[in-house]
Amino acid sequence: MTLEAVPEDWERCLAVVAHPDDLEYGAAAAIARWTQQGKSAVELLATRGEAGIATMEPEETAKVRTAEQEASGAVVGASAVEFLTGHRDGMLTYGLDLRRDLARAIRRHRPHAVITISFREGFYGGGAGWNHSDHRVLGEALVDAVRDAGNRWVFPELVDEGHEPWGDTRFVLAASSPRSGHYVDISDSIDVGMASLRAHKAYFGALGGVEGTETFLREGAARVGAEVGVAHALPVELL
After folding, report:
1. Distance between CA atoms of 91 and 78, rounded to whole angstroms?
2. Which residues is 4 bridged to in the sheet?
3. Structure pTM?
4. Which residue segment(s) compose the domain that 59 sits in?
5. For residue range 90-106, what is the model confidence (pLDDT) as tens digits?
6. How many domains is the chain built from?
7. Cα angle at 145 between 139 and 149, to 5 degrees?
8. Which conformational region is residue 110 in: left (phi greater than 0), alpha (psi within -120 to 50 degrees), or beta?
9. Residue 164 has pLDDT above 90, yes or no
10. DSSP string, 95-123
11. What span, in angstroms and rounded, lies between the C-alpha atoms of 6 and 48?
12. To 5 degrees, how large is the angle CA 139–CA 238–CA 89?
């Protein structure tokens, strides 16, 4: 498949994922590219990753991983890192509550582009493994929430809260989706993306270290880059 470059004639981006560290598996390098261009980016997390460290109690894990995501977002130039409330790591459920919370954030931030990670069964390039249920739930709810955000009569209570509809989000980008048809050139920002990955010290420390993950991501970005004629690239599905 020949991948096409993602259009970049826009100004504001909202990055939405389920857990701390999700963005750092490639999408953070794209965010770094865009903030280097002068675009604004906000990161929104559905949970605080409280179920992510087996040796640490969820409440403490949430504090640690919140701080790590805030540090990681600062590395790539995000203007804010925000977290939804009322949604638990490992237990995200597709439904009106999640859609409403995401639509509210979209109306508040009024992004031209939204980026998340793959919410399909797997990831670009294939390989073993089934995508995390939270990723699949979050992605589907997010695509629907982008539509909801533009419709005054879906969640009219948001208008009562002062959040007017926003229907000018041009597209949702799902990083590393197996259905990718586009790419972002991250050749000049991959090092920043890797620095943001290393900000998750406690999380990767519990997994035995970040080095293997960084090598995996760099090699994958180089393979995609070779497909499109650049040094490093992030494959994305454009919806």
Report:
1. 27
2. 182
3. 0.95
4. 4-238
5. 999 999 999 999 999 99
6. 1
7. 155
8. left
9. yes
10. SHHHHHHHHHHHHHH--SEEEEE--SSS-
11. 29
12. 15
